[in-house]
Design brief:
By secondary structure, the chain is an alpha+beta fold.
Amino acid sequence: MNVLDRQTPPQYKDINRVDFINPENHILSNGLKINALSGGSQDIVKIDFIFNAGTWHQPSPLIASTTNNLMKEGTKNFSSFEIIDGIDQYGAFLQTSVDFDSANITLYSLNKHLEKVLVYVQDIIFNPTFEQKEFDIYKNNSLEKFKVSMEKVSYVARKESMRQVFGTDNPYGVGAELVDFMNLSREKVIAFHQQFYSLNNCEVIISGKVTNECISLLEKYFGEKTSKTILPEKETTNTLSNEPDKIYIEKKNALQSAIRISKQFPNKLHQDYFGLQILNTILGGYFGSRLMKNIREDKGYTYGISSGILSLQHGGFFYISTEVGSDVTKNALAEIYKEIQLLQTKKISNEELDLVRNYLMGKILKSCDGPFNMAEMFENVYFYGLDYDFYNRYIHKIKTITPEDLMSLANKYLVDLKETVIGKL
């Protein structure tokens, strides 16, 4: 029997590129495009129906999320209970989600039960009834949740920050207000579904153990129906916000203050995107980041602080986010700006840069684990008109970026930041 030598670390392997699962394309009879990523050994598939129906497309706040959430709450042929019970009995799982740009209906199913489950999914997509009773329950529950959320400094800061960065003329900057719940109606939800949940506004990604039978079932349940609607055109030019650079909303009894520092940033299509991701990681993108070390570990002002870059179809933004004790709000702000200034004036050491390189490479490898994760990586670039080469170029940038490059990016982009504080200054 071989004895494992725990004194000797495993051999280090340098990573230059990743072998991805390339999608196989299928076009159903009605033109619906299927991207199939076949891999793994278990007889299970994940199917994402992806519609251009995110909040960017909604005519007024709440419409996109309400439509997506209510689709599974009753259809022409099944009640809400029958849908839940019918899917559960086959060990399948269905979830709906909405983000800024798209809306997803995602199904996980054993291959042997796929046809039985697709019966429900077909009806959810084509025949949701949006019953008045279900609509009223959802609306009232959402309103109560909104009132509770508005008491949380973190929620208000996030909402105010988006408006501050994008402005109210940009759909990304428009958040829900109380009046939007009053104006929300079942008729508006039905109209949004009819316009945006058509098959000419949808693509499908199926991953897992994809067989010919899986594709045949998709043809059977989704390849025959044709529905073509004319989608409204929307201005895609980024608008600059006229909101003030600093927003402070006092919460007299707040024990904590929420801080958001942010600005519009390049998205995945920009040449500086890779370098900015590495810069962001150093600043606040992982547990060993400079913001975490200083403001959490050294000063003890917060349980957690992070920064991030969100790429959107029509823009992008950068943010630093934290909640700190209300008595140390000013101190925390000073330390955040100090760390930004350090990135602009002092080159990062090779030791720290190597640590971040290893962290990011490991993160990429983890993201490639299994066909479901691979499908997410494909989706993350596909809708920007990109392919897997995006990740290989990212790996090359991680391995070759220099301390000088990072300092230059910090001076170019970490300026003119907008500040939102909810709580006490």
